[in-house]
Amino acid sequence: MANITFSSPKMKKDLTVYATAGDTSTLLALAKEHKIPVDFECENGECGSCAVKVSILANKQPMGMHLTEKEKTVLNLAGKITKDQIQDAEVNDIPPPWRLACQFIVRNEDVLVSL
Fold it and tell me: Which of 5, 45, 83, 102 is 20 to 30 Å from the Cα of 75, by its Cα?
């Protein structure tokens, strides 16, 4: 089970929710389930409106997190991630700081999501 903490100026305080290990829900689905105000439009990774900053809250190497082709393209064009960060994700399993909430699959590690 993972603790996912959402932080946003739209919220009165940070909110931590639990994500079940092995669940393949996206971060956006988790946010919607708990009524967390994540901006989104298309829900399929093409518009980039659900870009969020994800920070790992553990003192260990982050788990490799697969970037979808849509994420690579949209986040790179928006200037959120660089080609070097994409290569680090693919080759060294080092996740970039920005992700699309509609594409990010929650893993079994605690994260801070900044909206």
Answer: 5
List the helix and strand counts (H, then E) for the chain. 3, 5
How do the domains of the chain map onto residue ranges? 2-114
The whole-model pTM stands at 0.91
Query: 20: number of CA atoms within 13 Å, CB side?
Result: 5
Inter-residue contact 95 to 105 (CB < 8 Å): no
**Domain 2-114, CATH:** 3.10.20.30
**Cα dihedral 63, 83, 25, 57 sign:** positive
pLDDT tens by residue, 29-67: 999 999 999 999 999 999 999 999 999 887 776 666 789
